[in-house]
Design a protein that fits this description.
The complex is a heterodimer of chains A (about 110) and B (about 120). Chain A is built from no helices and 11 strands. By secondary structure, chain A is an all-beta fold. The relative contact order of chain A is 0.33. Chain A starts with a strand and ends with a strand. In chain B, the strands form 2 sheets. In chain B, strands 2, 4, 5, 9, 10 and 11 form a 6-stranded mixed β-sheet that branches. Chain B is globular. The chains are: A mainly beta (about 110), B mainly beta (about 120). Chains A and B meet through strand 4 and strand 5 of A and strand 4 and strand 5 of B.
Chain lengths: ~110, ~120
C-alpha cells in the first residue's frame, strides 16, 4: 500500500529538549516536504526536498532542521523546541513528474510545554 | 506569487442540502488546483484536482469543482450533503510544472463543514 508514515502521532515535550519526527514514504517520490497546521492559517511549508541531499527552506523554517540522506526518509528535527512550535505537523511526498498531487502522512500532534 | 483564499472558515448545512465551499486563487502562470479533505485526527486526503484538462472536475464522495479562469475560482460543490461529509476542507494551488517551474503546494486557511440533521 502506498503511504507516508510519520512517527510519533502524538508527542508532548519540554522546552529545549531536542526531538525528531520521522517521515518515510514507499512511493519512490523525489519531492518531500514538511508542513505545520495551525487554526486559521491552513498548512504552511516548513522545509522541502527535491531529492537526496537537496533541501531548502519553506515559508516558516525558523527553529527546524531537516535531512535527506535517503530518498524514502525525511526527518524533521527540532533542536530546541519552544512553545510556539506546538502544532500539528504533516509530512508529504510528491513525484516530480506524472501525478501531481501530494500524499500526506497521518500527522504528528506536538505539544511543547 | 501564488495565494489561495477560502471564503468562510465555517460552513453549516443541513443533511441533503447543497454544499458550496469557495476557493479563489491568484497565480501568474497556469495553475494546478486541488481540494483536500481532513477528517478528525487524520491526514489530508485528495478529493479532486484540476491539471488543465476538463474545467469541471469530478472527485470522490460525490464532490466536484469547476475551474473558472475568468473568476480565478475553483469552488467545491456537492448536490446533497451527508453527515459523513463533516470535515475540514482545504483548497491548494501549485504551479503547472510545464509552465517553467515546480514548486510547493500553497494552501488556503481551510473551511470547516458542519452537517446537521
Amino acid at each position: 500500500e502506498a503511504q507516508v508514515t510519520q512517527n510519533p502521532r502524538y508527542l508532548i515535550t519540554v522546552t529545549g529538549k531536542k526531538l525528531t519526527v520521522t517521515c518515510s514514504q514507499n512511493m519512490n517520490h523525489e519531492y518531500m516536504s514538511w508542513y505545520r497546521q495551525d487554526p486559521g492559517l491552513g498548512l504552511r511549508q516548513i522545509y522541502y526536498s527535491m531529492n537526496v541531499e537537496v533541501t531548502d527552506k519553506g515559508d516558516v523554517p525558523e527553529g527546524y532542521k531537516v535531512s535527506r540522506k535517503e530518498k524514502r526518509n525525511f526527518p524533521l528535527i527540532l533542536e530546541s523546541p519552544s512553545p510556539n512550535q506546538t502544532s500539528l505537523y504533516f509530512c508529504a511526498s510528491r513525484p516530480l513528474t506524472g501525478s501531481t498531487e501530494a500524499f500526506f502522512g497521518q500527522g504528528t500532534r506536538l505539544t511543547v510545554v | 506569487a501564488q495565494s489561495v483564499t477560502q471564503l468562510g472558515s465555517h460552513v453549516s448545512v443541513s443533511e441533503g442540502a447543497l454544499v458550496l465551499l469557495r476557493c479563489n486563487y491568484s497565480s501568474s502562470v497556469p495553475p494546478y488546483l486541488f481540494w483536500y479533505v481532513q477528517y478528525p485526527n487524520q491526514g489530508l486526503q485528495l478529493l479532486l484536482k484540476y491539471t488543465s484538462a476538463a474545467t469541471l472536475v469530478k472527485g470522490i464522495n460525490g464532490f466536484e469543482a469547476e475551474f473558472k479562469k475568468s473568476e480565478t475560482s475553483f469552488h467545491l460543490t456537492k448536490p446533497s450533503a451527508h453527515m459523513s461529509d463533516a470535515a475540514e476542507y482545504f483548497c491548494a494551488v501549485s504551479q503547472n510544472p510545464f509552465s517553467g517551474g515546480y514548486n510547493k503546494l500553497i494552501f488556503g486557511a481551510g473551511t470547516r463543514l458542519a452537517v446537521h440533521p
